[in-house]
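Please review this pair:
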Amino acid sequence: MTRSERQELIDKGLLLPLMEEFYTIQGEGFHKGTAAYFVRIGGCDVGCHWCDVKESWLAELHPPTETEKIVANAVKYSKTIVVTGGEPLTWNMTPLTTQLKEKGLQTHIETSGAYKLTGVWDWICLSPKKLKLPTEEIYGKAHELKMIIYNKSDFKFAEEQAAKVNKDCILYLQPEWSKRDKVVPEIVEYVMANPKWKVSLQTHKYLNIP
């Protein structure tokens, strides 16, 4: 395959820079505690300084993988497939999700929403970042809004984002892991004062699982 042929397949979403895939327990948000197969796609230019998967940023480090191969692996493990990153919407997600749906699987995505929404999704977890805001389209389609709290200014940003999502979107505040001892009490106090929000924790880290 020539470089141009490979790039054409990448552009179409038939090849994706696969960083890792694994079967585990969803640790965050609405579906926490449930079994899911995670597909982590490389490539992200949002650049959060506290990102705990910085090795996902450079797509070039991760091998372009056929969507058929990803689906064939996923179907062995779980009915729920979580596509995460990196920023998965950097790429065309339609071929991957179409194939997953043809196998009768549930498709979930974890995204900053910074790029055009592609793919067929049963659940959209939107986690906006200040450096590259979501597209207007995804606000109306998100099922949950997960706001990472690193410092007190993030509460204001969280409210700005909550004002944009649809009325049925579930609102979560999640402490940034390295600051959890400081911000958890602040989040608890905030949620008690603003009960439209719920607390999300990275329970997989407490369980010491991927």
